[in-house]
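quick one, three chains, predict together pls
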Amino acid sequence: MIKRFSVETTSRNQMIGITALVEDIVSESGVDHGLCLIQSLHTTAGLTVNENADPHVCADILARLTEIVPFEKAYQHSEGNSDAHIKASLVGFSESLFVDDGALVLGTWQGLYLCEFDGPRRRHVIVKVVADS
Amino acid sequence: MIKRFSVETTSRNQMIGITALVEDIVSESGVDHGLCLIQSLHTTAGLTVNENADPHVCADILARLTEIVPFEKAYQHSEGNSDAHIKASLVGFSESLFVDDGALVLGTWQGLYLCEFDGPRRRHVIVKVVADS
Amino acid sequence: MIKRFSVETTSRNQMIGITALVEDIVSESGVDHGLCLIQSLHTTAGLTVNENADPHVCADILARLTEIVPFEKAYQHSEGNSDAHIKASLVGFSESLFVDDGALVLGTWQGLYLCEFDGPRRRHVIVKVVADS
């Protein structure tokens, strides 16, 4: 069964932690051992894993991505948000994680993030928890 | 069961929409609810999700990737296509999507693309549709 | 069942081939047809697929990533390794591959790599092989 949640972003570029939201879905699924797949339904907002402790890491990721793919570049796409499309393809739109003993498996410092590159907006994420057969 | 299809690319850098090809495989699988995994079998052509409406978005993605990873850079790899290897690792080689009610789940503006970085060539993609247990 | 292995890296930036380690896990699983998911448990080391023949390709990938995301940049994160966090999010932390006839499915030139961006360190990778239902 596909579960869905929404996130309200508040800046043009923003990484919002969604680990707890996904952990709740894993918990409610009742699955002890399996996989958890997470997908962004957008083309200007992606998903990534990164450090869950110091928020400066997310700030550094966003700042460097904006240097690599600047907003002010001349792009063909008339909506003026090609930078957001490019950044999202660089971080990717989905994550595949493991479920073990009823919990999402992440490294000690790993957190899951929605990466907003064209906010503020309401963003939609879908999640599926699949039990081992 | 693994399904396979080929795509003939016509430029060195090119994004070719493969959503319909993958949707056909999902439809033929008869799976109503499950996962669809897609993998590029190459090291100089990857896969990504991005906008399915304005083709300028793909042109902007390719142009910016070529600025980030220029063809003319001095590389050690003697085949002269290291830029293509690097770009492919940046966008990635596989996608994991959901199947619901017999259809591939994509956001309104999402399409699936083969990203050619060393064409023109014939490229091979494999697809597996897995039913929920 | 989740399997785990460790890799000792010896440089700050390094791509270490892990295809054989993952192939061993697939073989021991006894699964003939299914999926193989691989996840890095870190935030400064990722995973990617790329060329398995000429090691110059990996050297070129690492060199170019370091030009795109330089070590010496001014970052907010006090540990001084933000470049490693950013590179890892660019290549990604997980791979989803297929298993067919008891073997991992990779293209002719494809190999699987752990991408170390903040070594030398001991790194942990987890793997799950899921049989088709």
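The first strand of chain A starts at residue 2 and ends at 8.
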